[in-house]
Amino acid sequence: MIGRPDRCGGYITAALLSVLATVVVAGLLTTARLRDGDLERRSATREALAQAKRALLAYAASGPHPPGVLLGSLPCPDLRNDGYAPGVCAEAVRRLGRLPWRTLGLPDLRDADGERLWYAVSGRFVETLAQSPCPLPGSAACLNSDTPGAITVRESQAAGLATGSNAAIAVVLSPGAALTRQGAASPQDRGCRRGLAADAQCLGSGICSGANLLVAGRPDYQQTARCDPANYLDVVGPPVLNVAGNPGAQEDNVGFQDFSATDGLLLGPVLDANRVPVLNDTGLLVERGDLFPPLERRVGADVLRCLVRYGAANGGHYPWTAAPDSYDPTVGPTPMVPGNSFGRVPDESTLAGLAAQGMSSTWPGGCPLAGSPVWWTHWRELVFFATAPAFAPGGPAVDCSAGCFRVGWPTAPASSRLVVLVAGGALPGTPTPQLHRSNATPTNYLEGSDLSGAPYFITARASSTFNDVVLAH
């Protein structure tokens, strides 16, 4: 007999060895296929989340926003499963729902389990139709680069502790497959049941019925199972997992409170002691570093376009600036200062002083600042501009032979007649920390040579010591 002796003195035949090898190889191939399939599923979910995040950022920077809604606002969640954002969602309970994919101009995004994405948005950024002016720098009513995110988001850890909190502006969520929520008696119901009866509208169209009313603290149409977040989003707590800063409590993704260190959102997966999923919500955060750089460029571009149009209508001359340290909306309009060629943007009402020099006393048509729109009251604190001497009121306004600005590096061509600067969020790491902007001192806003309106303006990647946005014409 061909083979080799085993421990019991018998022989393992070549045929048996071949069978064993086949079984091992098949097992390895099956494991590899399962692993590859899992990777593909996770990749599909990640791509859907990333596409949703990109759409939200584009919407915040460019709209289409309803009239009167602030630049930087994010849409309300979809509460009816129809893909559209309702017009008003100021109440906290209405700031969690499905991603409004139709409003965002997206396809019907799904995660790897075939579920539509969910979405949470913090109160300062949600789209409401009754926006008010920013009354004072740093006010809770303001939406600009200094506005913080508000949703505490934690990642689950293998040690059973939710850690690594982030203050997010918004979160896009994949609900994953239905499971039994911790402490529940039955699995999540994702059908069209409404109370003890079927929801006929939901059965026909998938859209939950019900009025836009709060019933027992929840929107009425969430009483249809398909629109109830408790049937999609999960809850976890002891003994499976403890939330850092809130031991003994649960973290329930069905709700959250702004600026709460203990009531936010938890991203999984989280498994119990038997390796059974008890929370399978995953997600992607929209953070300040995602949202504000494109918004700052948008604001700077709008101001630059306004000034360029003004110059084109006034023989190449631009207005005098306001003083660089003159911002105080509590005492009235920010005045233009004759002779100032570096500072903040003056209020439109103060341009009347240019009429004596034959220049316009209002912003031109199509200028985003015309009429002092509400959104501008939220950003004007952060915006400066500089005009080269030849293009200031009374200058020759011919070319840059009399001296223009260098932009980007000290040896750049002196070819820019007009520069707009938008201050990024307050920096803690500059020589003078910018964390308190209650006064209008430029050092609390701009960095380096951008502070002086000198012939050289910096353009560089944002860092812990520099985050100005500089645009030139």
Q: Can you tell me about this structure?
A:
The protein has helices at residues 14-62, 200-205, 288-313, 374-379, and strands at 3-5, 11-13, 96-98, 118-121, 151-155, 161-168, 170-174, 193-194, 197-198, 214-215, 218-219, 235-236, 242-243, 251-252, 265-267, 270-271, 277-279, 282-286, 342-344, 383-387, 406-408, 418-422, 456-458, 469-472. The chain is of the alpha+beta class and 473 residues long. It has 2 domains: 40-188 and 232-286, no CATH class; 290-472, no CATH class. Strands 3-4-7-18 form a 4-stranded antiparallel sheet. The chain has a 4-stranded mixed sheet with strand order 13-6-5-15, with no helix packed on it. Strands 19-20-22-24 form a 4-stranded antiparallel sheet, with helices on one face. Helix 1 packs parallel to helix 3. The radius of gyration is 29 Å and the shape is elongated. The termini are far apart. The model is unreliable at 25-34 (pLDDT under 50).
Helical segment tally?
4
- The structural domain count equals 2
Q: Roughly what is the average pLDDT, rounded to an integer?
A: 85
Distance between the termini: 91 Å
Label the overall shape: elongated
Report the sheet-strand fraction.
Answer: 15-25%
